[in-house]
Design a protein that fits this description.
Order of helices and strands: HHHH
Radius of gyration: 22 Å
Largest sheet: none
Oligomer: single chain
Structural class: mainly alpha
Number of domains: 2
Distance between the termini: 48 Å
Helix content: over 70%
Number of helices: 4
Shape: elongated
Number of strands: 0
Length: about 90
């Protein structure tokens, strides 16, 4: 007897159950976002690094005052600024 995983690995896109087809459509949509022509952001690496330094300072202040909401906010800001630095030149 064949398992579901074995049978689905041989299916074509048209034969896939609707949930897998939906996932396929979503990934196609996501790839479209990544591949379309985009306008580069005109910001210097140093400006982003200054924002990151400021975010770390504000996170430390929130930590010292035990303000969890602000800690979460600044933690998110720090993560996003690191993402921007990682995307430099892409």
């Amino acid at each position: 007897m064949e398992t579901l995983a074995q049978s689905s690995s041989r299916m074509t896109t048209k034969e896939m159950p609707q949930s897998e087809s939906l996932i396929s459509k979503m990934s196609d949509r996501f790839l479209g976002i990544l591949t379309r022509r985009e306008t580069p952001l005109d910001v210097s690496r140093q400006a982003v690094e200054r924002l990151l330094q400021d975010a770390y300072i504000n996170y430390d202040r929130a930590f010292d005052s035990k303000d969890r909401d602000l800690q979460m906010y600044w933690d998110g800001a720090i993560r996003n600024l690191h993402y921007v630095l990682e995307m430099d030149g892409q």
